[in-house]
């Protein structure tokens, strides 16, 4: 199979993550050492940022700025941070709006996108509203959607991939009364974890190479390299968020132990699914419940990646069961029913492909143009989109992320979706040569919104379109 390295040598300037196990063993010495010595860094759950509670809404100020933080043991690393942190956490409540004032103290633009958020055009992170260095902007989130695990990241034009890689990402948990009534694990037993990969020099310097996805051999969980996490012998709800640019995680617990899949991008699934392996692609969220009581106090359980790059260990993190605990939680047989989107009145097709003659990634043969509207659709009208990954020659995976509203997966290559894709989605991975049909209906907010591959290098090389939602 022709890899991106082969194409770069041939002169094609592109970002082509052929996400396969058994790839080239490469990486800086520090990355190899970090990968070879897992479970030396402790992981502690993040405390949510505290808002200023005003009449009718919660207010936060997020400042994008450079900061030095401790990522690898014995070193500090300069990152692009939000409030000086890696992976900050916001917890919001349905029906209570959030206003975030974004202050940009970087020397590059920043456009804040609430990934999975149902927002107006002006608060969606469209590049035309990006905050230039020294500027500030307020983003308004109505939080008028069902509970879900969302996340915030940069969506600026041409600088987003590096910004996200260098740390500009936050977790945004939206809760609601329906979810709180369910007997799922809550409080300290409901934990959100950001997963990403990185490459470091010996002195802790974070190395950015737009074409170097195969060299990012250090896996970070909430900014900690392959950490250990102390848990009680009871059920935990784990919300897993892939904030990598191009990395696929195929999650396996221990030697293939069973765990319970309960949610994806748009929140809870209709029903839980027992699984032994779960894919987590860039931009996706997967929610699982793990009962650590089955192992008992004193046992250790490793979360592995079944699709590591060549030469790196598979470990992502280790759970150390250190104490007993009462557990009144359970996973109900039914979670959240799906909305009825009705019959589709419009059908569209989106073909995603790499063009080796230009080094661009295209949708329907075109690279992104901020001055061009690719799709016009009416609010309230249900549509079916057929999404095709036509990159059979190079074996390149793609994904489709749609802003503004979630979608339902109707089928993959003509077959019904797996139970784990039965819920609402906003990011859908497509292996080379595959296709899928999804159904969606945009509501409430007219304006310009994006759809694009969430392999961020592919977006940087043109794989994005613009849709206008009209009344």
UniProtKB/TrEMBL annotation:
UniProt xrefs under Pfam families: Cu-oxidase_2 (PF07731), Cu-oxidase_3 (PF07732)
Phylogenetic classification of the source organism: Bacteria, Bacillati, Actinomycetota, Actinomycetes, Kitasatosporales
Residue ranges occupied by any Plastocyanin-like domain in the UniProt entry: 67-172, 358-467
Metal-binding recorded as keyword: yes
Catalytic activity: 4 Cu(+) + O2 + 4 H(+) = 4 Cu(2+) + 2 H2O
EC number annotated for this UniProt entry: 1.16.3.4
Gene3D superfamilies assigned to the protein according to its UniProt record, in alphabetical order: Cupredoxins - blue copper proteins
GO MF assignments: copper ion binding; oxidoreductase activity
Family: Belongs to the multicopper oxidase family.
SUPFAM superfamilies: Cupredoxins
InterPro entries given in the database record: Cu-oxidase-like_N (IPR011707), Cu-oxidase_C (IPR011706), Cu-oxidase_fam (IPR045087), Cu_oxidase_Cu_BS (IPR002355), Cupredoxin (IPR008972), TAT_signal (IPR006311)
Quaternary structure and interacting proteins, as annotated: Monomer.
Enzyme class (EC, first level): oxidoreductase
Protein's name according to its UniProt entry: Multicopper oxidase CueO
Keyword Calcium: no
Keywords for this protein: Metal-binding, Oxidoreductase
Family annotation (PROSITE patterns): MULTICOPPER_OXIDASE2 (PS00080), TAT (PS51318)
């Amino acid at each position: 199979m022709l890899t991106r390295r082969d194409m770069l040598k041939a002169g094609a300037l592109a970002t082509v993550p052929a996400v396969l196990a058994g790839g080239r063993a490469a990486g800086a010495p520090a990355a190899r050492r970090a990968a070879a010595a897992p479970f030396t860094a402790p992981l502690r759950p993040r405390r949510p940022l505290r808002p200023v509670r005003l009449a009718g809404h919660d207010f936060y100020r997020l400042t994008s700025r450079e900061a030095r933080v401790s990522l690898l043991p014995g070193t500090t690393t300069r990152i692009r941070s939000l409030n000086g942190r890696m992976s900050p956490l916001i917890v919001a409540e349905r029906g209570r709006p959030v206003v975030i004032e974004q202050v940009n103290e970087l020397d590059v633009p920043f456009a804040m996108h609430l990934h999975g958020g149902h927002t107006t055009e002006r608060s969606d992170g469209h590049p035309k509203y990006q905050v230039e260095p020294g500027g500030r902007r307020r983003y308004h989130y109505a939080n008028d959607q069902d509970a879900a695990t969302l996340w915030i990241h940069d969506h600026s034009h041409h600088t987003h991939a590096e910004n996200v890689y260098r740390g500009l990402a936050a977790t945004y948990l939206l809760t609601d009364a329906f979810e709180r009534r369910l007997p799922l694990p809550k409080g300290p037993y409901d934990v959100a974890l950001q997963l990403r990969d990185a490459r470091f020099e010996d002195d802790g310097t974070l190395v950015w190479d737009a074409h170097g996805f195969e060299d990012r051999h250090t896996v970070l969980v909430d900014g900690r390299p392959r950490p250990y996490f102390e848990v009680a012998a009871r059920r935990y709800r784990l919300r897993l968020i892939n904030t990598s640019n191009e990395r696929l995680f195929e999650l396996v617990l221990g030697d293939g132990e069973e765990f319970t899949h309960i949610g994806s991008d748009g929140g809870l699934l209709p029903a839980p699914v027992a699984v032994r392996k779960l894919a987590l692609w860039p931009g996706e969220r997967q929610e699982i419940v793990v009962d650590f009581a089955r192992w008992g106090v004193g046992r250790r359980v490793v979360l592995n990646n079944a699709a590591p790059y060549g030469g790196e260990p598979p470990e992502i993190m280790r759970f150390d069961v250190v104490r007993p605990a009462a557990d009144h939680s359970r996973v109900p047989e039914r979670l959240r029913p799906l909305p009825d989107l009705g019959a589709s009145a419009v059908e569209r097709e989106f073909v995603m492909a790499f063009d080796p003659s230009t080094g661009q990634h295209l949708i329907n043969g075109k690279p992104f143009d901020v001055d061009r509207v690719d799709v016009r659709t009416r609010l309230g009208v249900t549509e079916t989109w057929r999404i095709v990954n036509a990159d059979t020659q190079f074996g390149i995976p793609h994904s489709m992320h749609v802003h503004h509203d979630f979608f339902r997966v109707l089928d993959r290559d003509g077959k019904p979706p797996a139970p784990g894709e039965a819920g609402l989605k906003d990011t859908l991975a497509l292996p080379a040569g595959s296709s899928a049909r999804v159904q969606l209906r945009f509501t409430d907010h007219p304006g310009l919104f994006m759809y694009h591959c969430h392999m961020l290098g592919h977006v940087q090389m043109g794989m994005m379109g613009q849709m206008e939602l009209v009344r």
